[in-house]
Amino acid sequence: MSITTNFPLSEKSVEEFVRILLPTEVGKDIKGEAIYKENKIILKVEIDGKEASMEEENLESIIEDQKVIMLKGTLLKAFDKHYPWGSLIGVRPTKMTRRFLQMGFSRERVVKLLSNMYLASLEKIELLMRVIETEEKLLNKEAMNMYIGIPFCPSKCRYCSFASYEINSSLGRFYPKFVETLLEEIELVGELSKERGFIYESLYIGGGTPSVLTEEDTEKVLAAVHKYIDLSNLKEFTFEAGREDAITREKLEILKKYGVDRVSLNPQTFKEETLKSLNRTFNRKHFDEVYRDIKEIGFILNMDLILGLPGESVEDILNTLEELKKYEIDNLTIHSLAKKKGSPLYHVDFEQSEVERVIVEGAIKKLVKEKGMQPYYMYRQKNSLDWGENVGYSTLGNESRFNIEMIEENQQTMGLGGGAISKAIHKETEYIDQIERLVNPKDPALYIAEMKLRHDKKIKLFSKEIV
Q: Cα angle at 109 between 105 and 115, to 5 degrees?
C-alpha cells in the first residue's frame, strides 16, 4: 500500500484504519488531496478506481489532525460503508465531544460535525450526549484518583490483555515479595500525597484479580491504605472482586471493614462452555452464593458482560441478558470484544459472532430500562465489533466517578502496584491538556526491583505545576 497526499500524516494510522474498517481494501494505493476554499477544507480521495470527497469547516486550529480524519471518512464514503460509529475508531469520543461543547460549540453544531465529518449515526451521537450530560455533574478536576494494581489471577483468560499472571505459574513465587513491596509503595505515596496536599475522590483496586490476595494480605493492604493515605475526601472505594473463584465471604467482610463500598462480580457471559474454552473457571452455584453475600453485606454491585466472545451466537447473548435479570445490580458494564495484541486471542483466528445489532441493542435497552439504569460513561476500542462500544450503565446516584474520570482523563491519577499508570495533567492550551504518563512494571519481579526507582520518577512527574 502506498499513501500519497499533499499533507503530512501517519501512514500507520491510515493502514490500521483500512485494516479494521475496510479489510478487503488492504494493500491498495490511496491518493488524498486537501483543498482550501475560503473557510472550508475539501478533501478528495482516490482508491482502486473509486473517488469520493468531503467538505467541512476549517477547524485546524482546534482539530490538529482534521485532514486525516476527513481522509478516513472519505475512504468510507468511497466504498459506501455506513458504520454506526463512522470513522470513530480507537478514541474517547465523549472526551472529544465534550471539548467541542466546552469551546462554545452549540449542541446542534456538534451533532452536525460528528455526523458530517466523522460519519457517526444520530443514534450513537445521542448516546454521547446523554453520557456527557451525566458526566458533567460528576467531573471534578481539582481532585485526583488512585489506582492500585494487583497483577495476579487464578487463571489467565484468553481474551485478556491486562497486567496479570497466573498465581500458580512460575511468576507466582514473587507474590509474597510483591505484597511486601506494595505496602512500601503505599507508605511512600502517602508521604508524597501529604507533602503535596493531594485530594483523592476515588480509589480503585484492580488488576489482574485483586481478590486473589489472601485474607491476611487483603487486610494488610487495606490497613496500609488507611494508615498512609488521607481518605477524608473519598467519595467511592472500589474493589474489583471480578471472579467468583477467588472470593470468600471473609474477604468481603474485610473489604467492608475498611470502607470499600463498591465491588464488581463479573460473569462476562452465563454460557459456561464459553468461559471454559477461554480458560476462565466459573461455578454458577458459588457465583450465586457470592452474589448473596455481596448484597447481604451491603456493597454497590457492578457486573461486566462481554459481547462477541468466540463461539457465541446472538441467542447466547440474549440468554445471558435474560439471566442477568435475576440479579439486583447497581451498575452494568457491557463490553464489545476487542482482539488485543496483549491477549492470546490476538494470535488465534476466529470469526466473531454475526451479532444482529438491532436485536442485541434492543435487548440491552430493554434490560437497562427495567433495571432503572442510564448510560453514564463509554469508550471505544480498536479491533472491536464495528458497531460496538463499551458502555457503563448505572442506577441514579451509583455512577462510578473513577470510571468517568479515567475515560475522560480529567483528573490526575496516582498509580500503585503492578502495571499501574500514573497520569499528570498540565495545561497545553485553554481547551487541551497535556498528559504525561508513568507506568509501573507489569512483571512482578521487575516491579519489586524497580519500585523505588519508579517512585523517584513519580515525584518528578508530579513536581510540575498542576492544572
A: 130
**Rounded distance, CA 77 to CA 454, Å?**
47
- Read off the pLDDT of each residue in 131-156 and give the average, rounded to a whole number: 94
Q: Is 149 left (phi over 0), alpha (psi -120 to 50) or beta?
A: beta
- Angstrom distances, CA of residue 388 to CA of 89, 107, 216, 360: 10, 23, 41, 11
User: 14: which 3 cell numbers?
Assistant: 491510515
User: Are 228 and 191 within 8 A, CB to CB?
Assistant: yes
* H or E element that contains 332: strand 331-336
Sole residue written with cell 454497590? 300
Which candidate, 319, 391, 322, 307, places its Cα nearest to that of 355? Answer: 307
Q: Who's near 454: CB < 8 A, 6+ residues apart?
A: 438, 440, 441
Give the whole-angstrom CA distance, residue 467 versus residue 465. 7
Question: Residue 267 is which amino acid?
Answer: P
Q: In this structure, which amino acid lies at residue 151? A: P
160-208 pLDDT, tens digit each = 666 678 888 898 999 999 999 999 999 999 999 999 999 999 999 998 8
Half-sphere exposure of 80 (CA within 13 A, CB side): 1
Task: Look at residue 429 in the predicted model and tell me its pLDDT.
Answer: 67
- Grid cell in block for residue 33: 488531496
Report the residue count for the chain: 467
Q: The whole model's pTM is what?
A: 0.88
